[in-house]
Amino acid sequence: MILTIVKTGGPAGIEELLGTVDATRLDAESHRILALQLEDLTDLTSSHEPTDTDGYRYEIDVQGPGKARNLLAVDDEGDPDHPAFKALTALLRTLGLPPP
After folding, report:
1. How far apart (Å, rounded) are the C-alpha atoms in residues 69 and 90?
2. What are phi and psi of 68, to 5 degrees?
């Protein structure tokens, strides 16, 4: 499974690649945690439609075995305690990427 995380939006309309991680290289425990975090994010992210705000959006492209792909999107609403944002932060840490 390959995960690609991109930060988009903001006042300047940026598109910044935060990282690409091959999850098959993670140890068994990290892989188990990652699977649970992806389930949580899937439950917490229901819409992939862009918001009308100048905020940032974090897009997690999950490419599974074969050609299976899933796109998860988390909008930064300015609340670090929002469940989806907290789940995103935990996922980035698991992948060894800096938190937002």
Report:
1. 21
2. -65, 130
Phi first, then psi: what are they for 59, rounded to 5°? Answer: -110, 125
Alpha helix ranges (H) inside the chain: 28-44, 83-94
Cβ neighbors of 75 (< 8 A, separation 6 or more) are 51, 53, 55, 56, 57, 58, 84
Task: Give residue-wise pLDDT tens across range 11-56.
Answer: 888 899 999 999 989 999 999 999 999 999 988 885 555 555 678 9
Task: Look at the alpha carbons of 60, 32, 20, 22 in this order and tell me if their dihedral is positive or negative.
Answer: negative
Residue 10 backbone class (left: φ over 0; alpha: ψ -120 to 50; beta: rest): left
Integer Cα distance of 51 and 26 in angstroms? 33
Strands (E), 38-90: 56-63, 69-75
- The angle that helices 28-44 and 83-94 make with each other, rounded to 10 degrees, is 160
